Amino acid sequence: MKIKRYFKVFVVFVAAVCVLFSLAVLLSCSEGATDSVQAADEPDGIKESGGEAETADRNVSDWTLMGLDARNYANNMAVKVSDAEKDWVHHHKMVLKWNKIEPSQDAFNWSFYDNQINARLADGCQSILILLQGEVPAWARDPSYGDLADIAPPLDWGDWYDFCAAVAERYGSVVDFYEIWNEPGWDRDSYAFEKFGLCHFGGQVETDYLPMLQLGYAAVKEQDPSGQVICGALINSMDQEPATRGTELTAQLFDEVNRPGQDVSVEIKADKDIVAERPMYFNYCGAWTGGHDVLGANQSAGEWYFAEGTTRDGFDEWICLQNPGDAAIHVDAVYMFGPGQGANDLRGYDLPPESRTTIKVNSEVGTGKDVSVRLTSSGDFIAERPMYFNYNGVWTGGHDVVGANQSAGEWYFAEGTTRDGFDEYLCLQNPGDAAIHVDAVYMFGPGQGANDLRGYDLPPKSRTTLNVNSEVGADKDVSVRLTSSGDFIAERPMYFNYNGVWTGGHDVVGANQSAGEWYFAEGTTRDGFDEYLCLQNPGDAAIHVDAVYMFGPGQGANDLRGYDLPPKSRTTIKVNTEVGEEKDVSVRLTSSGDFIAERPMYFNYNGVWTGGHDVLGARGQDVLEASGVSDTWYFAEGCTGFSIQEYLCLQNPHDEPVNVDLTFMMIKGEVFQRSVELEPKSRTTLNLNMLIGFHGSCDMVAAHPYKMPNNWGAYYSALVDVLRSRGAGQEVVATEIGWPNYADGCPECYDQQQQADALSSWGMATLVGAGCRKIWVYRAIDEDPGKSWDGNYYGLFSYQGVPHLAWDKYKQWQQGNPTYPNLPTSLP
User: Fold this and answer.
1) Which residues, listed in sequence order, are joined to residue 560 by a DSSP beta bridge?
2) This model's pTM is above 0.70
3) Residue 436's closest CA among 410, 403, 468, 412?
4) What are the start-end ranges of the H helices in 248-342?
5) Going by DSSP bridges, is the β-strand pair 644-652/618-619 parallel, antiparallel, or unpaired?
6) 148: CB partners within 8 A, 6+ apart
7) What are the respective helix, strand and coil percentages of the chain, to the nearest 5?
């Protein structure tokens, strides 16, 4: 069966919801160190033939087991070892090679592995672990990996997903554990490859393995939700010392903020209308700290505008394009410059289907330009424009906006200030062929003077920048209404040194209409955060606004407040004062009259990254009316890692729970999905770094202790400590453990007694004593004498099926292990 390439895994991730302002939630998970394996517990249920977990819960995550890696079981152990000895093997590991199963695209050959699994089941089997790995079939290989393409990521990531999904669909009824690739840390720049030519992964583990894990996880969970997905062993050294060696890659890649990053776009589909915002905090290129936040786009479109943008010294401008459709599209860009900066520049970009594309504007148009952009396509897409800066060489930060998908003759900004430490600008784009005149009404805070009226002429196809501080003077809180007989686009960037301590900048595209209802999904009054609401009443009559503050889990009941807005005025509310400290806050604002609402926030994120961000709210008619489209939200920008922390804030304003599907579109072409449920009238925060990174893409983590057995337990403990220090609570399981009994041509190098000792007090006892509860021994039977790839023999039995001394030690462990119900005696 060909798996549909939409990569949808319907797994509820309410438990994966992470509190917003933690870089890593340290999960306490005891490994339960013991001197001996526990006695048998009450047996758990077994898997149904369809692959779903029984109601009785076959919860293999609670099991204690010792398995055996039996290669070619049907033709070796099944026929060479007596039934009395085979009865001691309850848990099996087997390797599934992609090229053996799918030699031609979409043509699956299951006969060999069906035979292997059925032989295990017929002999009595309690669980099976399958290792999914290459060789990559010739038809799927990426030639850019050269001689290592057979063990590298495929050209089309969807092919890897299809393979994993097909395996889980066929074998999910009897398989409990799925390990994704063998020892990916031994890649093309590892010590093992450099020293010995030993390479298990032809890509770069730092950048290429996470996509394989993400897609393998999604594919398995779609077909076998109860299956346990294991992250491959991230060893990268041949010399595992207990304290340091061999854990470096795990420490790096499970650091979800500072690991090598992934660019990601998100599509959100809900079964009721919701509000979605995406805050990000960063240390851009290790130099400019800050954060930005946007309200998502609730529809794709064939046209997008950005009035602001600059490639001046100290500014890096990017455009992020998301194509959520299933067909490739072409996007044309017209870059419009400030006065005297040259003629408009035209460029074109091809967007693959279900993809994220990133453009660095500095590289496209050159430096020293003030840039407005118009993007058009015959197909629909989404556009965002993040910018990072060192403003005037002193204030670092970044801001981001989703573009305007239409020009208009009217624009509003509720926020704005010219107080000390704030520089405010208005950026106006005239994309038309004729000059237009724009009138501005500046509305000030209480006691700051009468409204101020100004007028501006905009040349055709141009960008105009206004310094609001110069227009209205210092120490004003400023709302603005801009109108024209012609259509244009307006943005308002601001740069600041907030209270003389937190520097940064924020930017919004204006609202082109007022409304009686506004929503904000994001907001917090936690330590280091100051949150405000800026409300603009552009009308001739006073109005009253009611606010419902909705908090994060366990933070108390919703809070209701009311505010009176004078006519043609700007009102500022400090949310910290309204609701108290240490709250995660979503807000709903309503009035019988129309108004505009923005929410600026200033912060010292985790005490290290200072800045601020601001969004215009979601209008009520976009949220709750049946004709609205806000059951769908898009974010073209997004990045996890690279010293960037990304969150998703989801607000459910309804009295019932809402189910939400999140589809992630990555820059390498991977597409996969996660699902969440939102509680009624609530604020939910997802830590995307964890949700889609290593933390959220595996149920367990593989350890491969090897070499000196006296280090096994200490190495295992060091690996657990590294994961816990990174906030990872996954169980660490030893999916490969063993010690050669002798070397081909050098029997004295290793002997059977040493192998037996390794599986008893010398090695295995230290591993179990360190808390390891799931161990698979490598391996069952020696290879044909003289044909071992590295000259060593690893089996517990000779090639003829005669047990070595270590076999008795294996049986001793099994005598103390729990027993569980057998799987069916054959595949369904």
Assistant:
1) 548
2) yes
3) 410
4) 248-253
5) unpaired
6) 188, 199, 202, 203
7) 20, 40, 40
